[in-house]
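Collaboration report, partner site 2.

Our partner group contributed sequences for two proteins of shared interest, and the home lab folded both. The records are reproduced in the order in which they were received, starting with the first partner submission.
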Amino acid sequence: QVRLVESGGGLVYPGSSLNLRCDYSGIVTSDYSLGWFRQAPGKEREWVASILRDNSENYADSVKGRFTIIKDNVHGAVYLQMNRLTPEDSGVYFCNARIVEFQGPQDYWGRGTQVTIPS
């Protein structure tokens, strides 16, 4: 069973940094990607960053140059290093695993961790 557990959220002031962590388990194939999404109150969930099976990284334009996604295969974790945070970065951050299964790509989600940057 795939399990994703986020941690590391909190309240920090503009310009600060946070490092989110997602511990994952139960992935038995190498054909998967990991990513981070976020959702602000009253808004739809939006994609933030992904790291693919070849370790290539992709970022939303709004976070490019400020956020870094890092995968630790040894410990089964994926991190989101966030720098120069702004109030627009506030929201619940969700860890995502997209796994290619027999019936096609399947998305798995953690429960999220809250990030708050007051204006």
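Second partner submission, folded after the first:
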Amino acid sequence: QVQLVESGGGLVRPGGSLRLSCAASRSIFNLYSLGWYRQAPGKERELVARRITHEDTIYADFVKGRFTLSRENANTVLLQMNSLKPDDTAIYYCHARVRENMEDYWGQGTQVTVSS
């Protein structure tokens, strides 16, 4: 089992930046992947960025060049979000998939609102 604790959401103006943090209860190197999804009102949950351990990081087309997923330490990943747009408004969920059975785990979600 994996617990995920998110932080860093909030309200920001268009063009601004936010940084989200996700701390996992086990080392990233013992996970298959760790990353972020988001869900806007009335829409399905969608991938934002996902780091597959020992492989490449995958980004959604709509965040390429604006968002960066990085590893802060053995248990924590950061999502740096720049040039934010109103369309980026959503609840952002940290997601982990474990190696042993490919089971998925989700954080509680953090609200990101981009508005003037």
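Feedback sent to the partner group on the second submission included the following. DSSP finds no helices and eleven strands in the chain. The chain has a mean pLDDT of 94.
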